[in-house]
Design brief:
The structure is a single chain. This protein has 14 helices and eight strands. The chain is 46% helix and 12% strand. The N and C termini lie far apart (59 Å). It has one domain: Cytochrome-c3 Hydrogenase, chain B (Orthogonal Bundle). Helix 4 runs antiparallel to helix 5 and helix 11 packs parallel to helix 13. The protein has a three-stranded antiparallel beta sheet with strand order 1-2-3. The protein has a three-stranded antiparallel beta sheet with strand order 6-7-8. By secondary structure, the chain is an alpha+beta fold.
Length: 380
């Protein structure tokens, strides 16, 4: 006698199944999860699953004093925390009408570009590992540590420096800092040919990354893509040049683009940006000694600081893309509302979900790392 579900039983088994990347899988960027539905090794659908890391930053900031949030915001993007400090400080300064000293502006740009270097080195290593190459990852982490040594000397902290405050920066450079930074830049410059030989010109990487996760410029603009991911589609947009802040309008640098819009182009843009950040830092080293004066302007008692009522939107160019803060004050000692426009919110969710569909299973991690997202930005 046939069972009632005989017709279902006799059907051939389906090749469709679901697979979870993360939140502790090595093929994922940080504490993040990505769920894919597969037909064999082809991705049929994909869904981002966030919420495994630091969460609720925006609401936490509304319950803390203005100055207390300076120690909180760097955690929104651990590999590149400095833009978080600077953008939040710029928002408060705009609400208060504070004019920070010129020397503080140069010091902020110096720290921003150092952070960009460190973040890109970290990103290269992660992407290399997705294609089976681990030596670039070890190199990137080791060279990044040398930059963190300079952060520690300048700010007292290696990862979370908490150096930028409303009104400027906490303190000036130690004696001889620019000389040591210059020596580091010489070393990093000498390392770039090694990275090219090992990774960027490696045929394994080039063949694996070309045409993977490709998007057109029209798609990138429609999806809200910014930063290196947008410039990899051929559009030369960079907040540092197109809406300059601090002293970027006094610095000479190029906006690098690539035409492919794929994982290869995104990595090549970041590789070229290493050279541009070194170029910017050399100009700062040359110019900063001639900029004398204070590194911060007077501010009220930070523990009883009532920021004037109003709202503002400030933005900077982080290593991940356009980072912005929308801040509202009701005249009290805490923010009334804060919204962080982090680039990873777009790149790690809607963009990643779209680019993953139609790709092969082995390329999912590569697409993810090529977008260079920060999971805590999504969980903010």
């Amino acid at each position: 006698m046939r069972p009632e579900n005989y017709e279902a039983i006799k059907q051939p088994p389906s090749n469709e199944f679901e697979l979870n990347f993360g939140p502790n899988h090595p093929g994922i960027e940080g504490n993040y999860a990505f769920r894919v539905k597969l037909n064999g090794d082809e991705v049929l659908s994909a869904r981002a699953d966030a919420g495994y890391l630091h969460r609720g930053f925006e609401k936490l900031m509304e319950g803390r004093l203005w100055i207390q949030n300076i120690a909180l915001v760097p955690r929104i993007c651990v590999p590149d925390p400095v833009p978080m400090e600077v953008c939040y400080s710029l928002a408060i300064e705009e609400l208060c009408g504070l004019e920070i000293p010129e020397r503080a502006m140069w010091l902020r740009v110096m720290q921003l570009e150092m952070s960009r270097l460190a973040a890109h080195l970290f990103a290269f290593g992660g992407h290399a590992a997705t294609t089976g190459m681990y030596t670039p990852m070890f190199w990137g982490v080791a060279d990044r540590d040398l930059i963190l040594d300079r952060f520690e000397e300048l700010t007292g902290g290696r990862v979370y420096s908490i150096y930028n405050i409303p009104g400027g920066v906490r303190r000036d450079m130690p004696d001889g800092f620019l000389d040591r930074l210059g020596t580091l830049l010489d070393y990093l410059d000498s390392r770039l040919p090694d990275y090219d030989s090992l990774f960027f010109r490696n045929q394994v990487f080039i063949k694996r990354a070309r045409d993977v996760g490709a998007m057109t410029q029209e798609q990138a603009l429609k999806w809200g893509v910014t930063g290196p991911n947008l410039r990899a589609t051929g559009l030369a947009f960079d907040v540092r040049r197109d809406d300059p802040y601090l002293v970027y309008d006094k610095i000479d640098f190029d906006i690098v683009t690539e035409p492919g819009g794929d994982a290869l182009s995104r990595n090549l843009v970041r590789r070229a940006e290493l050279k541009q950040s070194i170029r910017i830092l050399r100009q700062i080293i040359k110019h900063l000694p001639s900029v004398k004066g204070a590194v911060r302007c007077p501010i009220p008692n930070p523990l009883a600081w009532n920021v004037p009522a109003g709202e503002t939107y400030t933005r900077v160019e982080s290593s991940k893309g356009e980072l912005a803060y929308y801040v509202v004050s009701n005249g009290g000692d805490k923010p009334y509302r804060v919204h962080v426009r982090g680039p990873s919110s777009m790149h790690a969710v809607q963009v990643l979900e779209k680019l993953a569909v139609g790709s092969r299973l082995e390329d999912v991690a590569q697409i993810m790392f090529s977008l260079d997202a920060c999971p805590p930005e999504v969980d903010r």
